[in-house]
Amino acid sequence: MKKSFEIPVYNSEVREAVRNKENHPNLEDKWADTHLIMVRAHTPDEAVIVCRRQHPEKMGFVLGEVAEA
User: Fold this and answer.
1) How far is CA 69 from CA 30, 31, 38, 61, 64, in A?
2) Residue 53, SS3?
3) Ranges of H-type helices in the chain
């Protein structure tokens, strides 16, 4: 049975742009802040995989510690 997990996510590229008083070319400034992403999955590892699909590391997204919601 799937459980709910929360994963804090922010974008390091957006944070850097905001710090330099610039805008990221593709993402809104709000991604400089941490967002709690809710994911339904069987395990914490699966939750990370699901979250990474929409928030890939190669695009600057940083995932925090997974917590069961």
Assistant:
1) 23, 22, 8, 21, 14
2) helix
3) 12-19, 44-54
User: End-to-end CA distance of the chain, in Å?
Assistant: 14
**DSSP class of 50:** H
For the chain, how many structural domains are there in total?
1
CA–CA dist 42, 25 (Å, integer): 35
Q: Which residues pair with 11 in a beta bridge?
A: 61
**Domain range holding 58?**
3-68
Beta-carbon count within 10 A of 46 CB: 16
Predicted confidence pLDDT, tens digits, the chain (69 residues): 999 999 999 999 999 999 999 999 999 999 999 999 999 999 999 999 999 999 999 999 999 999 999
